[in-house]
Amino acid sequence: MAKCEHSVNKMSSHSLKTGSSIPQVQGTNDNSTLSKVSTSRVGYYKDPYLKYFTGCHKSPNRAPLIHWGYWIRYSAVNKTLIEFLTNLGNKDNQVISLGAGFDTAFFRLKSECGNVDLLKKCHYYEVDYPSVVARKQHFIDSVPKIKELAIGSNYDLIGCDITKLKDLEASLKGANVDGDTSTLLIAEVVLTYIQPKYVDKLLEWAASFFGKAVICVYEQIKPFDGFGQVMLKHFHTLSSPLLNIEMYSTSQSQCKRYENAGWSEVNSCDMNQLYFSLPEEIRKHVMSLEPFDEYEEWHLKCSHYHMITGFTSPQYWSSIMDPLSSSSNNDDEGISDVLEEWRALYLHTESQHLKRYGHDSVRFEDDKVLVYGGFGIKDHSLAHCRLDNAIMIKSNGEDWESKELIAGNDGPGPLMYHSMTLLPKSNEVILIGGRKSPKHSNEVLYSLSSCGTECNWRIIQYKGDCFKGRWRHSTTLVNDRWLVIIGGCAVNGHVFSDILLLDSIDWTMKKLPVSLPEGRHSHLAVNYKSSVLIFGGLNADLSPVSTCLQLSEDKSHLMAVEFIPQLPAKYSMSGHIISNDVLLMFGGVSISQHQSDIVIVNMQNRTWQGVNLKYPPTISLPLLHGHSSHLMDDGNVVCIGGGGNCFSFGTHLNESPLLIQCSKF
Ligand SMILES: C[S@@+](CC[C@H](N)C(=O)[O-])C[C@H]1O[C@@H](n2cnc3c(N)ncnc32)[C@H](O)[C@@H]1O
């Protein structure tokens, strides 16, 4: 069954040529195996075999976002694999998984096939470094039910460095691989670790050796934005850097690369597109498995991974397999060039307090800003947690002074995604909603007043309709009196479409007779000429919304405001009316491959323009979500905090407040 052709020593000398550390690259397999075990344990998909490939490692429980990430990876590759095997039907065929690691697709298919034996005409080959193959062989031999599936069947493990093409061809031929048989080549997060020149040669060799082949490659793209930089740094730190991504940073450049290597009908889709191509019941099932509230990082992760497919002899495949179809849901947002005027500067602060996301903040008249809650760094231990401290900050040129206020009494405790609104007449801050864990929302309304170095909390006893606990809603102050609370989400993925009105004089809560046409959360709402404008948001289907709605001054009508072209569908942005009819939307997340840092919206002529910020070259790029921002007296915008839990790459907290110089606008 196993054919380990090459020694480990030989591989080590080769590592110098390929530029990556081979043990570390092999370690990526162990890591992903543990994450996949955790994912299947929760029920995202069935894999009864993988746990036997973890050796003595006890597989830890991973975070929901990691489960979602591994589930979408499984869904992408499995979709092509099943389509290939189903459509080939009774024709002889072969699957060759390059850099297969401990993948268990063969065993899953072999045992799950039942009456429809997808593998009956298939020979399944898995190739990896000899030492990985030897470990896999050992695990297979140790578990009788896996050994049974492998023995005497159409399964071969081949130990070979896939950059050594002569060896690879000889090993494959030695195992009866036939260049004329219909072939599916899979490389699931493998080629990215190999020097580009070796990948190019491998792609060229495969395109010429296999007369009738489909190639399916799943890997990372988009290294140049904030999330991409976090991703790059993570793999670099693990000594398994992503070696192709800077040269081939987009799906388009990757497709061109495959075409140049001899592949036809090359197509790609990112994981956002793949997600929305999956049946609704599967998506609903996944949403029901665990409390989940990491939407931004989910969409960002999905836009940074794509799957590419290409064919040799496309005319042969035309009646058998469709090329990947990419839907139009992630077109570009329509970004103009970086404008010199739109400079972003990091403000200097010694404090770690502002490294947080999911908080909210209010600005007082004297440009002081009060921040509460979120997730981030609480004290000198630098450990990350949900935060319950109130921080008063004050800009002093490019320096930013901050101090933690001493709370005179008990407040709401650690909270995320609440809203804070300043009542300018009393200088009281009204805190509404928010959550502790995604299983516990806050139903109590608080007032916070600060004086010097202290702050005091008061529970607001209101009358009228009941406020149902929620987070990621918006609260907008209108005519210095009315707090308009819109949308939000709650436990079990519930998304609100209601609009509530809280009178800050007699503290009466009223549910308005109008409601949003579809529920949403993480939208932007701003006061505009005594009406409320509601932009974007995320709906219950996890689709970013592009509409702009306007709640009339008398709060009796909700109208759609049309833009040409349509506004970008995004959520989790902040925003401000910066002059009479101009609104600035800052940051946010969309499922477009290219999204702008700022959207300038003109309410007068209903147009908009995307703009990218110009950052000083030496700083790490911020993640433009989970932040709060304020329009300051000088006309510039200050953005506080932001960042998120970036998949398995760790939590990223923006360095320090960001000053966006838009005063010239
Ligand atoms: C991230 S793991 C992925 C494993 C598997 N494809 C999966 O998705 O579970 C990357 C795998 O590629 C293998 N690999 C990387 N470079 C290779 C090379 N030059 N020759 C053979 N295998 C290689 C590693 O040993 C590792 O098992």
From TrEMBL:
Gene name as annotated: 100641360
Keyword annotations from UniProtKB, A to Z: Methyltransferase, S-adenosyl-L-methionine, Transferase, tRNA processing
Pathway(s) served: tRNA modification; wybutosine-tRNA(Phe) biosynthesis
Region of interest (Disordered), ranges: 1-35
Molecular functions per Gene Ontology: tRNA methyltransferase activity
Residue runs in coiled coils: none
tRNA processing keyword on record: yes
Signal peptide: none
EC number: 2.1.1.290, 2.3.1.231
Stretches with biased composition (Polar residues): 9-35
Protein name: tRNA wybutosine-synthesizing protein 4
Keyword Ion transport (UniProt): no
Enzyme class: transferase
InterPro entries: Kelch-typ_b-propeller (IPR015915), Ppm1/Ppm2/Tcmp (IPR007213), SAM-dependent_MTases_sf (IPR029063)
Protein family: Belongs to the methyltransferase superfamily. LCMT family.
Any one of the GO BP annotations: wybutosine biosynthetic process
Catalytic activity line of the entry: 7-[(3S)-(3-amino-3-methoxycarbonyl)propyl]wyosine(37) in tRNA(Phe) + S-adenosyl-L-methionine + CO2 = wybutosine(37) in tRNA(Phe) + S-adenosyl-L-homocysteine + 2 H(+); 7-[(3S)-3-amino-3-carboxypropyl]wyosine(37) in tRNA(Phe) + S-adenosyl-L-methionine = 7-[(3S)-(3-amino-3-methoxycarbonyl)propyl]wyosine(37) in tRNA(Phe) + S-adenosyl-L-homocysteine
